[in-house]
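agent> fetching stored inputs for the phenylalanine docking request
agent> found them:
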Amino acid sequence: MAINKQEHAQWSSSFGFVLAAVGSAVGLGNIWKFPYMVGESGGSAFVIAYLFCIALVGFPILVAEWLVGRRGQKNPINTFADVAASEGKSRSWGIVGATGILGGFLILSFYSVIGGWALNYITKVASGSFAGQDSDSVAATFDAMLASAGTLTVWHTVFMALTALIVGIGVTKGIEGTAKILMPLLGLILFIMVGYNVINGGFGEAVAYLFTPDLSKLTADVMLAALGHAFFTLSIGMGIMVAYGSYLGREVNLLKTARTVVILDTVIALAAGLAIFPIIFSHGLDPASGPGLIFVSLPIAFGSMGAGTILGTLFFLLITFAAITSSVSLLEPTVEFLEERTSMNRMMATVVASTVIWLLGVAALLSFNLWSEFTIMGNGIFDALDKLTSKFLLPLTGLAGIIFVGWKMDQRTIQQELGLSNGMWQLWQIVAKFVAPIAVIVVFITTLMG
Ligand code: PHE
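agent> prediction call returned; pasting tokens
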């Protein structure tokens, strides 16, 4: 949404706000990234670390970002600078907004590549190409897509163009209405898939894999991956929720709203796990196969179901839609920034930002084929972008945000704003001042030492 320079707009209702926040939070992170990270990090250890990070770090930082956004009422950089100034602190806190914008910019480049995969799979599933196929040929189809720089570029371009179109025209609000219908539908199909798995086997094994605590696998790397994913999946640590908070009315209860968003986001990720892993196990596939996980496992199931073509097409359509409600929120801060700080108008800002992001995305997708030999500190460009953002930029930006709210802002007014009784207030203080920041710092230090 565009910042209205004279009169700052507000969400029409707190329901509209929840919807926009859920639209940003629920996306490829839940359905594509969460399952494959679980697979790569050995299952339940990751799930447990992730749940801890969501509750003790993600939740308070989400609240903190909305709180700052609602105070500042501007783009993330000016918001942090202004709120800091009004608390008698340095305006250089604006840097927190800047690293956030940079994070969103970098994430969108590879996010759009995966959005492109999902778009491509709509056409593949719809044309019935998986019907009756065994797991080897489904996997071969995926590998062939990855090997083709041309195919990947075409679909990445379509996804990026769709995102740019929506942001450029400024109809972000319009897609809220659509999200109201389509997001629940996505949830419904996920649950149908889970039901299919209960009947077709592998379910018990998947539940054990996801939820049986095995602390021996809980390494510093797994912790960092889980922490980074908590930020990614909640869209925090990059100014998006700060920007969303700036449109919030006074009457909205931040804690309750954050609880709704966090629960919905987590339930969808776990449901995706239960939709995917039983198929992996019952077909003897490798859970640690990386980013291709859902593009191989789900088509196998769709290929063997009666109504698989229809259900599968709908499923990839809905994932693409969920991805677009997130990608729009990723592009918005950069565009808003260019619009406010340069002489560009909205259209121009959108074209410039999305072209640069698109180029970076092309470099990322080439790491699956033509440039697969090229690495940055042992990672291909795609992985490097993913790791740099999830494991460093987002957690550090979020850490700065929670330190700001916990230590730099006037605490009395925050208590009033959150509407907390004294007991709950104390709990909030412990979490915001100590638990969340220390958790982030400890994870960093142990990873650096490891
Ligand atoms: N949270 C989104 C997802 O899980 C991705 C995203 C990250 C969107 C950061 C906006 C900002 O897919």
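agent> quick read of the result: The longest helix spans residues 308-341.
agent> awaiting further instructions
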